[in-house]
Amino acid sequence: MTKRYFVVGGEYADTTFTEFAIGHGEERFGPFDERAAHECWRALTGKTVDNAMVRYFIRAEDKRAGENWYVTGGEYAETDFIRMAPGHPLEVYGPFDHESAMAKWRELAARTVDSALIRYDLCTKEDIEERRRAAQP
Length: 137
Known about the structure:
The chain is of the alpha+beta class. The protein has one domain (about 5-135). The protein contains three helices and six strands; from the N terminus they run ββαβββαβα. It has helices at about 35-45, 100-110, 125-135, and strands at about 5-10, 25-30, 55-60, 70-75, 90-95, 120-125. The strands form two sheets. The protein has a three-stranded antiparallel sheet, with helices on one face. The longest helix is centred in the N-terminal third of the chain and has 14 residues, at about 35-45.
């Protein structure tokens, strides 16, 4: 069975990215296969790059209890967020349960909000090797 992915996020109240801004709720796009989800995410982040309060991330549909989640990302070479910047390997944090992974993602996103080339995302163990291959310069 192929995993389905959604792009979720929107405008948040502050840079902790824990509560949506007044009058805004979670936006949800999909379902997609993984590649289409990344294309949607890139398009959305490209359109909202000037608003530090807007964040989107990719969520797998089958968020099972007990499944291990990882936070991956770091400094990318370009704003397409595919290849890592020279000398910057793909960072991997985890494994976590989904709630703890979200907390780690929020911590990293808040700490790096001022850098347009640093991004983090949630993924499962199966996704890590594919991300590492794609991130190679």
